Amino acid sequence: MQAALTPPRDTARPFANCRYRHKPAMVLKILKVIDMRIFTLTITVLLFFAPVATAQNRPDDASLIQLNTRIFDLRADVRNLRRDDDFIPLTEIEWLRMLTDEDEYLEPTVVHIKAARAPVLKRWKTLEPDRDFPITENIPSMFLLDGYQTRSGHPSNRRLLLVPIDDSTDFTVHCNGGNIEKHRFCTVSATYPPDPNIWLLARVYHPEPPFHFREIAHRIREIAYCLDVTEAVNSGAYKAGPYVDPDKDLPELRNCYDPIS
User: Fold this and answer.
1) Which of 30-34, 198-202, 209-213 has the least mean pLDDT?
2) Does residue 59 have a cis bond before it (omega within 30 degrees)?
3) Cβ(110)–Cβ(176) below 8 Å
4) Of 159, 167, 155, residue with least CA distance to 187
5) CA-CA distance, 76 to 250, in Å (whole number)?
6) Contacts for 36 with CB less than 8 Å, ≥ 6 apart
7) pTM (predicted TM-score)
8) Are 206 and 181 in contact (CB under 8 A)?
């Protein structure tokens, strides 16, 4: 019986005897897939070992936000912070959220710094309490507070205005759902003296007496002051500090720009 003949191999063309020798397009496709997998693996390794942003290599402006004329250092990377251009959601920053949660007056609040297109006091002065909040009778007793003038915008008391008698240009309070506990929340709005077009806001959900609206206004203004680095930036003296580590000691509220080491 005659032995089967083996065709000679074409050593000059390594793929000549491959079963894909008549399918060069398939070969190229396979090679491209292999190359892409190697490229993807290389990028993954590089990203894994890439340096994490620190106080030494992070951009100096990664923690800065400017509203009107003021610049605030949030001591965290805010480049991906979800917000509109006209406000800073302070309590969306982890360490500030933890800080306010530990404060006896700010624990139930959401705090924002907001920019206005016109001076805040001008907006407040154009508000006519007699017209917008004409009712002064049958107001829930829990909102009749010493040192405040309390008015209602509707017989149902779903909108209430509380204005401090001693200084109505310092802050005001609006409360909604006065007669319905589950719908009740108050908003404390405070001025920010360094910029008349900036105001501070704290939402207090499900408030219960005793209320501490004046203390809340003072606290949120204090936070804004200690985050404000405008003069340092404008003078060239600003130097980015390390991000606040929420797992370590939190900054004191009265000195939040210099965390406790």
Assistant:
1) 30-34
2) no
3) no
4) 159
5) 13
6) none
7) 0.72
8) yes
Q: Give the position of tokens 């930036």.
A: 233
How many angstroms separate the CA atoms of 223 and 62, rounded? 19
Q: Which residue has the tokens 């404008």?
A: 234
Give the integer Cα–Cα distance in Å for 49 and 210: 53
Both tokens of 46, joined, read 């590089």
Integer angstrom CA distances of residue 83 from 27, 112, 150, 206: 50, 10, 33, 24
Structure tokens, 254: 């009265």
Tell me the DSSP string of 194-238: T-TTEEEEEEEES--SSP-HHHHHHHHHHHHHHHB-HHHHHHT--
* pLDDT tens, position by position, 145-181: 999 999 998 888 888 999 898 877 789 999 987 666 6
Q: Under DSSP, is residue 192 helix (H, G, I), strand (E, B) or coil?
A: coil
The pLDDT, as a whole number, for residue 244 is 85
Write out the DSSP string of 68-93: TTEEEE-SS--TT----TTEEEGGGS
Instruction: Give the helix/strand (H/E) hosting 24.
Output: helix 24-48
CA distance 261 to 250: 9
User: Look-up: residue for tokens 């005659």?
Assistant: 2
